[in-house]
Design brief:
Number of helices: 14
Distance between the termini: 49 Å
Strand order of the largest sheet: 1-2-3-5-4
Number of strands: 9
Shape: globular
CATH superfamily of the largest domain: Aminoglycoside phosphotransferase (APH), C-terminal lobe
Strand content: 5-15%
Radius of gyration: 20 Å
CATH class of the largest domain: Alpha Beta
CATH topology of the largest domain: Aminoglycoside 3'-phosphotransferase, Chain: A, domain 2
Structural class: alpha+beta
Order of helices and strands: HEEEHEEHHHHHEEEEHHHHHHH
Number of domains: 2
Largest sheet: 5 strands, antiparallel
């Protein structure tokens, strides 16, 4: 049976929740759904999908099970064909990869209790754990993030990258995982996204002048992103989060870091994730002081996680600096102010553009053109 996924939180019925959860937990029955809170596109930190916090009442037969009383439900923006590749990709991650991340050593990501994607409508849903029940905090660039907290997030990245490092499974049961060069998300990024990004550059003053500050243009940045992706596709590959800016992370009381919002999950080059995290997570001054040490720390953790033939520091440092072009162009030029608000949008741009200049990224990218 193909489920008809709701277009809004108000449509989250007990029947729907029973059907979705029943695919993962056979026999579950939800008697009642209480909507506690809901955020749609453009509200607070809501970007490409809406979120609802719901409280569930189960039938007595499952009341004592491990099923949580509260869930966060992630929903699409109504019928949205443009965002469909993102939604499909994230559902695939949670249904086909997330369960194995619980294997020791566990890789921290939200637990999923069901979900699906309907290609005919572009609608989807994901029933995710309420991370606040574990005391999670959700950092953003308006707050100070410590070097130690960044290390905790790098631990999780290294565990993920090490688990899937040069995995032969990318030719077998994980052959469906997209790359930066092929797949629905790549088609969107190389098809519709450039015109949208150019519109942002043309109409949003601070974005236009930041691009001018770099003495470049939208088309030149796009060519650079594509050149780096072609180049790094020839280097060691692993499973990436794909969109690991600080706002897509969480921190737990015991000091662990987690990754959420897996819409851009992809097979690619590990330093794509690492650069985007470090560059957005730290203030300009803290990044300049600590990023070499943090890259060294990550490489050591990557080896400890089982990765072999890891590139040395100098090679990694060079590719780390090249990877910045994606964060500048795709990461935040594509992000409208309504998604996160002015301060978060500007701060991310400022950190990325400053690092781009510090690292002479344009010169490194030009070598590939």
């Amino acid at each position: 049976m193909t489920l008809s996924h709701p277009a809004s939180p108000a449509d989250l019925s007990a029947e729907y929740m029973t059907a979705v959860m029943g695919e993962v937990f056979p026999g579950v029955h939800v008697n009642r759904v209480s909507l506690i809170d809901a955020k749609s596109y453009g509200e607070q930190m809501v970007s490409t999908a809406g979120r609802a916090l719901v409280e569930l009442d189960y039938s007595p037969a499952v009341a004592s099970s491990a099923l949580p009383k509260r869930l966060v439900v992630k929903l699409g923006r109504g019928v949205d064909e443009i965002m469909a590749p993102f939604y499909s990709n994230e559902v695939a991650f949670y249904r086909r990869i997330r369960p194995e991340l619980e294997r020791e050593p566990e890789i921290e990501a939200p637990r999923c209790f069901g979900g699906g994607f309907a290609p005919e409508t572009g609608r989807f849903s994901l029933l995710l754990e309420d991370l606040t029940a574990r005391g999670a905090q959700f950092p953003n660039v308006t707050q100070t993030t410590s070097v130690e907290q960044v290390r905790a997030l790098l631990d999780t990245q290294a565990a993920l990258h090490g688990r899937f490092w040069q995995s032969p499974r990318f030719s077998t049961d994980l052959s469906w995982v997209e790359t930066h060069l092929a797949g629905g998300v790549a088609d969107l990024m190389n098809g519709l996204a450039p015109a949208y990004i150019q519109h942002e550059i043309d109409t949003v003053g601070f974005k236009r002048e930041l691009v001018q500050k770099l003495r470049t243009t939208g088309p030149e940045l796009l060519a650079g992103v594509q050149a780096v992706q072609r180049h790094q596709a020839k280097l060691p590959q692993t499973l990436l989060h794909g969109d690991s800016h600080l706002g897509n992370t969480y921190l737990l009381p015991e000091g662990r870091g987690g990754l959420l919002d897996w819409q851009l999950m992809v097979r690619g080059y590990h330093l794509h994730d690492v650069n985007y995290l470090i560059t957005t997570a730290l203030s300009v001054a803290d990044r300049r002081t600590n990023e070499r040490e943090l890259l060294t720390y990550y490489l050591d953790r990557l080896k400890a996680a089982g990765a072999t033939a890891v590139p040395n520091f100098e090679e990694s440092w060079r590719e780390y600096r090249r990877a910045l072009v994606w964060g500048v162009y795709i990461g935040w030029l594509t992000t409208p102010v309504v998604n996160y608000g002015w301060e978060i949008n500007v701060m991310n741009h400022l950190r990325l553009v400053t690092a781009y200049e510090d690292h002479e990224t344009q010169a490194l990218v030009s070598e590939l053109l």
